[in-house]
Amino acid sequence: MRIALHTGKGGVGKTTISAATAIACAMGGARTLLVSTDPAHSIADVLGVAVDGDPTEVPGVPNLWAAQVDTRGRFEQSWSHIRGYLVGVLAARGMAEVQAEELTVLPGAEEIVALLELRRLAESGDFDAIIVDCAPTGETLRLLALPETIGFYAQRLLGAPQRVLRSIAASLTGLPGSAPNATVRDALGELLAELMAARALLADPAITGVRLVLTPERMVVAEARRLFTALSLHGFRVEAVTVNRLLPPHVGGEFLRRQREGQREAMTQVEESFQGLPIRRVLQTPVEPIGLQRLSEMAVDMFAAAGYHVVAVTGKADQRDWLTHLGAAEILPREAVSLADTPNPRPLLPAKWAGALDNVGGATLEALVRSTQTGGNVALCGLVGGADYRGTVMPFILRGVGLLGITSSNTAMPVRQHLWQRLATDLRPRHLADVARTVPLEALPDEIDRMLAGQAFGRVVVPLA
Ligand SMILES: Nc1ncnc2c1ncn2[C@@H]1O[C@H](COP(=O)(O)OP(=O)(O)O)[C@@H](O)[C@H]1O
Ligand SMILES: [Mg+2]
User: Fold this and answer.
1) Is the C-beta atom of 376 inside 6 A of ligand 1?
2) How many structural domains does the chain have?
3) Confidence of residue 211 (pLDDT cuts 50, 70, 90)
4) From the CA of 280, which ligand is nearest?
5) Which of 304, 338, 355 is the last residue of a domain?
6) In this predicted model, what pLDDT tens digit does every residue of 372-386 receive, in sequence order?
7) Measured from the CB, is residue 15 less than 6 Å from ligand 1?
8) What's the predicted TM-score (pTM) here?
9) Which atom of ligand 1 is the closest one to the Cα of 244?
10) Could you read off the pLDDT of 217-245 as tens digits, one per residue?
11) HEC string for the chain
């Protein structure tokens, strides 16, 4: 089970990004709970469905549940003993009950409840992933630091001699007091133990990761940086940064051009401040991303570059390290994905691939099309393996596999511009500089020899001007 906490300044898109993330997890097959600890009940607004205290299924997305922590109601349950005691003490001293109740409203009560609820949901065993939409920065920090703070006071309080407790009670009420009785001590001890367990769950890097959500603005980045430091000091693992509301590169006008410039500067700060952390980019959309349809689109965009288990196929065994560095999780030899040595291949092979990029064609393509999962696409952009294709229509009809031929010279300019812009922004390859080498024109014959000898890899750029 994994827990992902989304936090950041108010209004940066925590609820939106949490919802899109939860949809992506659910679509990927994980039993996912989207839960908000923010008293502003916004996940119902964003999803467009009713949400209450207990997890309810979100219609239209299999594997997705949503819940809104009912901080008030739950707090009354867990705090009632202790509160009853305090109210009793105060009332016995002649204070009006209503006034006493008011006095015993504890600051941080909502955070306490949120922590306990998270733990309850995590321990239920009903979910593989819990995506948490937290309250804005300050409250989240209070939430995460709470068990330490409470622990500090409670240990002193519980361990203190009666005499001291009486004087604390007296100082609270302004009247000579009595010490807390055994029930109160038990309740306090239990609550403390639960809070500590909840904290342990959230501080366990194998289970919980914090994701900072921010917008590309200097003040927001500065706050996120402080939050990052504070979280790290408290021992919480920050696992990713999501930059939301980036302006798309093609929207026009002087106003937007200047705004984009500011965003670019802020992005430089983001990259400097969060080195080593994955940085996800989410574009500003023209309409509010509300409802399952728009959130799903956002989810696909957000994780398209990051979410896949990439298997690389190569005929060059010495390229393993390089391919791993570029992001391949697994590397297979060319023969493993080829039907070159199979005289009568079956029309369908076990479905392995969610999708494939094929720059070889021929026997490789024949294998890929037969082993792509239902609804998956094979994009074809090369034919060194041959221009012939041996196969049946079965994968296309029975599995709805798509074969996408990639052509560049016949692609309309607006489509190209759109794709280039995305390749330069949200889909920008992480290791672009390592993919290509630049050689002078005179060195080209050597490169061609290497290519013919099957020793070339990556791309070769020849500057002509
Ligand atoms: N990428 C985006 N493009 C356009 N509007 C967005 C985007 N992300 C969030 N919004 C809008 O910004 C507002 C604040 O987002 P929200 O997720 O509620 O922020 P938070 O939870 O951090 O307060 C909402 O109206 C939301 O629809
Ligand atoms: Mg919110």
Assistant:
1) no
2) 2
3) very high
4) 1
5) 304
6) 998 899 999 888 889
7) yes
8) 0.63
9) 1
10) 999 999 999 999 988 888 889 999 999 99
11) CEEEEEECCCCCCHHHHHHHHHHHHHHCCCCEEEEECCCCCCHHHHHCCCCCCCCEECCCCCCEEEEECCHHHHHHHHHHHHHHHHHHHHHHCCCCHHHHHHHCCCCCHHHHHHHHHHHHHHHCCCCCEEEEECCCHHHHHHHHHHHHHHHHHHHHHHHCCHHHHHHHHHHHHCCCCCCCCHHHHHHHHHHHHHHHHHHHHHHCCCCEEEEEEECCCHHHHHHHHHHHHHHHHCCCCEEEEEEEEECCCCCCCHHHHHHHHHHHHHHHHHHHHCCCCCEEEEECCCCCCCCHHHHHHHHHHHHHCCCCCCEEEECCHHHHHHHHHHCCCEEEEHHHHCCCCCCCCCCCCCCCEEEEEECCCHHHHHHHHHCEEEEEEEEECCCCCCCCCCCCCHHHHHCCCEEEECCCCCCCHHHHHHHHHHHHCCCCCCCHHHHEEECCHHHHHHHHHHHHCCCCCCEEECCCC
